[in-house]
Design goal:
Number of helices: 5
Shape: flat
Distance between the termini: 44 Å
Number of strands: 0
Order of helices and strands: HHHHH
Strand content: under 5%
Helix content: 55-70%
Structural class: mainly alpha
């Protein structure tokens, strides 16, 4: 990954954190500079964080050829999360783990189906042990409609 891409990505994450904190802090009483409320300090700090992050994103984007986005991993992980949610609701936990791992492996073209299958078996077995046996949660392992 190019250094400017990394700077842009990290600055983008910090900007999202700053905006989120700003929105959450708006729910608190702001007060004034003389009599600060509980929301004053978080609003000011998150605003500064957001401004600095956006300025860093602009600086990273100004480098020639700096922003090159590889959409394959982004879309694969997004599909994996959505696939997990849908499969968990419709078919249960074990099929959901196979779907999430199968779709996640699409992010790396050199990742074969044999390691993905082994990973899915190990992960779903571990999840079954953790949630069903150790924690006693009542999650449907297989739920065929």
């Amino acid at each position: 990954m190019h250094l400017a891409n990394l700077r842009f990505t990290v600055a983008g994450i910090l900007a999202v954190i700053g905006i989120s904190a700003f929105v959450i802090a708006l729910g608190y009483e702001f007060g004034s500079a003389r009599r600060m409320g509980p929301g004053y300090f978080p609003v000011v700090l998150s605003g500064i964080l957001t401004l600095l992050a956006v300025s860093e994103m602009i600086s990273a984007a100004m480098k020639p050829g700096a922003i090159a986005v590889d959409w394959r991993p982004f879309m694969a992980i997004l599909a994996a999360v959505a696939g997990f949610a849908v499969t968990m609701a419709l078919f249960g936990m074990i099929p959901a783990f196979f779907v999430v791992i199968g779709l996640s492996t699409l992010s790396e073209p050199r990742f074969g189906w044999v390691p993905a299958l082994i990973l899915a078996v190990v992960t779903s077995t571990g999840a079954w042990l953790l949630f069903s046996r150790f924690l006693g949660m009542t999650m449907p392992l297989f739920d065929w409609p």
